[in-house]
Amino acid sequence: MKTDLLYEGKAKRVYQAKDKTGQLVLDYKNDATAFNGEKKEVFIGKGRLNNEISAYIFKALNEQGVQTHFIEKLSETEQLVHQTEIIPLEVVVRNVAAGSITRRLEIEADTPFTPPLVELFYKDDKLGDPLINDEHALFLSDVTRSELQEIKAKALEINQQLTTLFETVDLKLVDFKLEFGRLASGCIVLSDEISPDTCRLWDITTNENLDKDVFRQGTGDLLEVYQKLLNRLEART
Ligand code: TMP
Ligand code: ASP
């Protein structure tokens, strides 16, 4: 199904799909990293869990009419996607204060943001993915001003859809990171992954973290909480 390795990131390997031009195979790895790769550990089974969780979420978004790169899950750790040129922006949506914003702006954790905040980070490991503004984003990427507005509007629309989805499994979507890519046609679609690596998800009643914060902060068992999240999603249908 896959041929040449095109790129290896911290959490996935990206291959050209065999005999299918314009399609890629994403292979989810078992590595967990935090703090720009400073903390690293291998969890056997993490790749399978994130592949399943991200495939579930992208399928749900596709069904709701969001244009994404996702085509289908191929195996335990692999999925088939449309090839895109990744736009080097990390688009973070925040519904509740947690993580970097609580330190950067001294906002108390758990403070709600109404309306939600959208932040842009420049996707560059050697710079540590710095926070940037719209003018920087226009300078650093090849998106136009109207495409940037479109990306932010899409991120907020996806926030509403995901907030509703996670509410059905008693989880609060605190914040998450999205990446967008450009298809050969020029069209911009949602790319990369949506998983507990890229979201903060708190149990609606207990505020228990079902995401990578358990690894970042050393407060829980990553495999156990990712499996718990997958079980809740699978019990929906
Ligand atoms: P932050 O609070 O560390 O800025 O993270 C905001 C959200 O983005 C959180 O849900 C985790 C996610 N995220 C990533 O997916 N990749 C990253 O490299 C970082 C720093 C955060
Ligand atoms: N993804 C980043 C890393 O691998 C940071 C994070 O998610 O906390 O280091």
Any overview of this molecule?
The protein is α+β, with helices and mostly antiparallel strands. 30% of the residues lie in helices and 34% in strands. It is built from six helices and 14 strands. It has helices at residues 46-63, 100-104, 134-140, 145-167, 213-216, 222-234, and strands spanning 2-8, 12-17, 23-28, 31-34, 39-42, 70-73, 78-82, 85-86, 89-96, 112-122, 131-132, 171-182, 188-191, 199-203. The strands form three sheets. Strands 8, 9, 10, 11, 12, 13 and 14 form a seven-stranded antiparallel sheet that branches. A five-stranded antiparallel sheet has the order 1-2-3-7-6, with helices on one face. Helix 1 runs parallel beside helix 6. The longest helix has 23 residues, at 145-167. The radius of gyration is 17 Å and the shape is globular. The two termini are 29 Å apart. The relative contact order is 0.16. The model has no long low-confidence stretch (mean pLDDT 97). The site of thymidine-5'-phosphate has 11 residues, from helix 2, strand 12 and strand 14. Aspartic acid binds next to strand 4.
Question: What distinguishing features does this structure have?
Answer:
237 residues; alpha+beta; seven-stranded antiparallel sheet; five-stranded antiparallel sheet; 14 strands; 30% helix; 34% strand; globular; binds thymidine-5'-phosphate; binds aspartic acid
User: What portion of residues is helical?
Assistant: 25-40%
Beta-strand share of residues: 25-35%
Computed structural class: alpha+beta
> Cα-atom Rg, whole angstroms?
17 Å
Low-confidence stretches: none
| Ligand kinds | thymidine-5'-phosphate, aspartic acid
Number of strands: 14
Query: Which shape, going by the Cα principal axes?
Result: globular
Task: State the separation between the terminal residues, measured CA to CA.
Answer: 29 Å
By DSSP (H or I, 4+ residues per run), the number of helices equals: 6
Mean pLDDT: 97
Q: Which series of helices and strands comes N to C? A: EEEEEHEEEEHEEHHEEEHH
Based on the structure, what is the oligomeric state of the protein chains?
single chain
Can you summarize the main beta sheet?
A: 7 strands, antiparallel
